[in-house]
User: Fold this.
Amino acid sequence: MKSQCTTADYRRISRWEHEPVIEAMQRRLDRQPDAMTLRRRTVEHVFGTLKHWMGSTHFLTRTLEHVSTEMSLHVLAYNLKRVLQILGIAKTMKAMKLAGA
Assistant:
């Protein structure tokens, strides 16, 4: 059997240094199989909305620095829109005035 597996006198098993973290995450997922479904449902809505706003195809800029800036602006716009929906304009303006003071 050994002749089929390796030609060395010993075996080396290499593991990624963060492998225990991955294994712990997998154990948590095994205990709660619906956790990923809930996470996808929560997170994918945001990315779907952002992708729709961006035209669903591509970024308008090039280079990582510019694309990062463009994505940050999209995220900022999304967050501001959500705050306005949750708090309303009056409470949002009040909070902004308090933060600026």
